[in-house]
Amino acid sequence: MRNIALIIVDFQNGFDEVDYWGGNRNNPKAEENTRILLDVWRERKFPLFHIRHDSVNIKSKLAPGQWGNEIKEIVKPLPGEIVISKTVNSAFIGTDLKQRLDEQKIKSVVVVGLQTDHCVSTTARMAGNFGYDTIVVSDATATFDRVGVDGIKIPSSVIHMVNLSSLNGEFATVLTTEELLQKIEIETYA
Amino acid sequence: MRNIALIIVDFQNGFDEVDYWGGNRNNPKAEENTRILLDVWRERKFPLFHIRHDSVNIKSKLAPGQWGNEIKEIVKPLPGEIVISKTVNSAFIGTDLKQRLDEQKIKSVVVVGLQTDHCVSTTARMAGNFGYDTIVVSDATATFDRVGVDGIKIPSSVIHMVNLSSLNGEFATVLTTEELLQKIEIETYA
After folding, report:
1. Which of B89, B148, B161 sits opposite A161 (nearest CB)?
2. What CATH number is attached to the domain comprising A62?
3. How many C-alpha atoms does B74 have within 13 Å on its Cβ side?
4. What are the C-alpha distances in Å from B81 to residues B45, B113, B128, B181?
5. Which tens digit of pLDDT belongs to each residue from B144-180?
6. Is A122 on the interface with B (CB under 8 A)?
7. What pLDDT does residue A7 have?
8. Which pLDDT score, from 0 to 100, does residue A161 have?
9. What confidence tens digit (pLDDT) does each residue in B63-95 have?
């Protein structure tokens, strides 16, 4: 299990402006669950990649140079940890993430972060399609209400569940934090 | 509008085995609508890319060398039209699609095909993230029922609507066939 990378996507202060992103965020404990994983990864010295969205839109809540761009305190990178800047949803486009994974001969990745159906889904899809054994942690990611293409609002919980279900078994395996921790225990001491 | 490419993803016979893919396919007219677009694209000599999934799993309904792998008669490529083979969901991974688009200085793409939440969504996400102005045609794509991560079946219509809503405004603009045809008329004769 040593070579399973944790990829933490876009847990940035700007997402606390909930209404801006659609309102009604689900999974309020996503950051706490990610911190639990982060502590395990740090303790075991597993590979770890913090991804930060550096929006090229200067009006964005995630534009560099402001509070909203900073990674949230609870999952803040420690000095020396790798932080990869991206400007689109996928952590693999316009970055050296794939090169870094391959240089370290990493075959398995865990994707967590914001938002389930945007950056997390896109990063997990590309990871799966590149051939990495990919896990998405259902309670360490979250999203917001969306206006449907028919103009009717779709609750965040539905967006979350449906998007994870479209990933599961096709691009990734969807696990809870607890299920992932159990898997790591078992495989470490097997 | 001359440089808007139509990318037709995976309309292959193997998908007619509906139960194998989850059952209860929505949008039965997706192929007919695609044919309407295909006729317009052919008539106007707009760029056109047929994508075929050549599964590396020899037991797959889409594995090469069998009926299921062939592109459906209604949208079958004509001699001389470009057919790109892929082995994963994204039409951009392991293919030269991006290189071909860029060589032709194509800035806009229309994505149709199967399945809404798998190959169509992944291809549209990457197109949007690569910077192409991307349109997904809601009634020229379709999906099947899925078993949710909680074990409860999710109807294809919900999978379809939610996945399109997660794309819309973030990665792509979601239009109907009729809306797209109107847009092409207006921009061609503007």
Report:
1. B148
2. 3.40.50.850
3. 17
4. 11, 17, 24, 21
5. 999 999 999 999 999 999 999 999 999 999 999 999 9
6. yes
7. 98
8. 98
9. 999 999 999 999 999 999 999 999 999 999 999
Could you tell me if B66 lies within 8 Å of chain A, comparing CB atoms? no
Q: What is the DSSP string of B136-168?
A: EEEEEEE---EE-TTS-EE-HHHHHHHHHHHHB
Q: Is A89 helix (H, G, I), strand (E, B) or coil?
A: coil
**Which residue in B131, B40, B183 sits closest to A56, CA to CA?**
B131
- % of chain A exceeding 70 in pLDDT: 98
When divided into structural domains, chain B yields a total of 1
Tens digit of each residue's pLDDT (9 = 90 or more) over B23-63: 999 999 999 999 999 999 999 999 999 999 999 999 999 99
Best of A126, A149, A163, A171 to mutate (most B CBs within 10 Å, chain B):
A149
Tell me the chain B residues in contact with residue A174 when contact means C-beta distances shorter than 8 Å: 149
Q: Are residues B88 and A163, on separate chains, in Cβ contact within 8 Å?
A: no
A129:B166 CB<8 A: no
Sign of CA dihedral A78, A183, A132, A139: negative
Range of the domain at A175: 4-188
Q: Name chain A contacts of B156, Cβ cutoff 8 Å.
A: none
